[in-house]
Structures are given as structure tokens and as C-alpha cells.
Amino acid sequence: MRETDPADTDTDTDTDTATCVDLRDVEREAAMIRLFDGQHAQLVRLAVLLGADQDAEDVVAEAFCVLHSRWYGLRAPQAAAAYLRSVVCNLVRMRIRRLQVSRRHADVPPDPVASAESTAMLHEDRRQVVDALEGLPTRQREALVLRYWLDLREREIADAMGISTGAVKSHISRGMHALSRAMGTRRGNGGSAGGGSPCWSSRY
Predict the structure, then answer these.
(1) FRET label pair with 58: which of 18, 43, 151, 188, CA 20 to 30 Å apart?
(2) Closest C-alpha to 155, from 71, 204, 86, 88
């Protein structure tokens, strides 16, 4: 009976490890494809509502790249969708800050005309709400969009925004007050939007 060569054992171990890594990569790619098919359009609309405008597609593409590079750091594959939402929020927030800084230095007023792409993402009867949202502080806008458009629970919103549930409640309350005031002003100026809760949903 031939004795087992230690070198053979090492080779078998290396092969098993490589096979395991390859299978993990295949599973990751399959999961990424499913996420893209199921979440992409919704995430682009989310980015538009948060203020990404014509950069919404690029923001979402970058979010998927970030997820891909950090996939193995997720606590579970089921956490991927929530992680994507969090990344989109962060990226849009960073974009808004960069624009604010560049406009301050260049003394350029914000462009009041929405891009054709971002306008096409939304029904016309939702445009007034979106315009009013754009006038809110970033955190209030995020909280309202995540709550009333994505219909997330406070804990999920807190995870996406990286804040406490108490802070989420505060942002939603203040945001709703400011949004209602803004919409009331628009109605007084001849707008047709009604009162009550924000009139958007994940269907739009």
C-alpha cells in the first residue's frame, strides 16, 4: 500500500479551497444579477427623489459597484438590498454637498430646470411634491422618501441613513411640517396639489 504523499494532500486542499472560492464568486454574481433586475429601477427613482437628478443612473451604478466589492462583508446576502439603499443615500448626500460647495465657490445659482431623464422617471402629478422635497434639508428629504415612497419601517430607515430611530422620527416630523407648509404655499400660488400625506408611492 502506497503511503500518502503530503504534497498530494496539500494539492487536494488547495483545489478544494479554490473550488469553494469559485462557487462563492458564482453565487455572488448570480445574486448581483437578481438584485439588479429587481432593484435597479426602484433605486434610480429613489436617487431622483433624493436629489440626484441626471446623475441618478450613475449613483445607482456606483452603489452596485460598492456592493460587489464588499459583498463578502455583508452579514447575510439578504442584507444586500438594505445595503444598496444605504449606499445610494450616502452617495446622493455626498453629491449634494459637492454641488453646494462648488456653487458657493463659483457663485452659480442652482439650476431650476429638472433634467429630462429625472422628469421622465416621475408622473407629472407628482412633480410638485418632488419640487417641494428638493427644498427640504437633505436628512428630512431622505427620511420622507424612505418612509412614504419605499414604505420602510423606522428601523430600516435608521439603518439606511445611519442614524437612530429617534432621529428618524424627528426628521420625518419636521420634514412633514416643512413639506406641508411648502405645498400650502404652492397651492396659494395656484398649484393644484392637495394636502395630507405625500402623494407618491413605489408605483411611480
Answers:
(1) 151
(2) 86
* Cβ burial, residue 160 (10 Å; 0-12/13-18/19+): buried
Residue/partner pairs of 92-99 with CB below 8 Å, 24 or more apart: 92/47, 92/50, 92/51, 92/52, 92/59, 93/50, 93/138, 93/142, 95/51, 95/52, 95/55, 95/59, 96/51, 96/138
For residues 120 and 114, what is the distance between their CA atoms, to the nearest angstrom?
A: 10
Question: pLDDT for 9-20, tens place per residue?
Answer: 555 555 555 555
CA-CA distance, 16 to 20, in Å (whole number)?
A: 6
d(CA 34, CA 20): 21
Q: Name the 3-class secondary structure at 118.
A: helix
Which tens digit of pLDDT belongs to each residue from 139-166? 999 999 999 988 999 999 999 999 999 9
Q: Which of 103, 70, 93, 72 is nearest to 146 (CA)?
A: 93
Closest Cα to residue 84, out of 97, 72, 71? 71
Q: How far apart are the C-alpha atoms of 158 and 200, rounded to whole Å?
A: 21
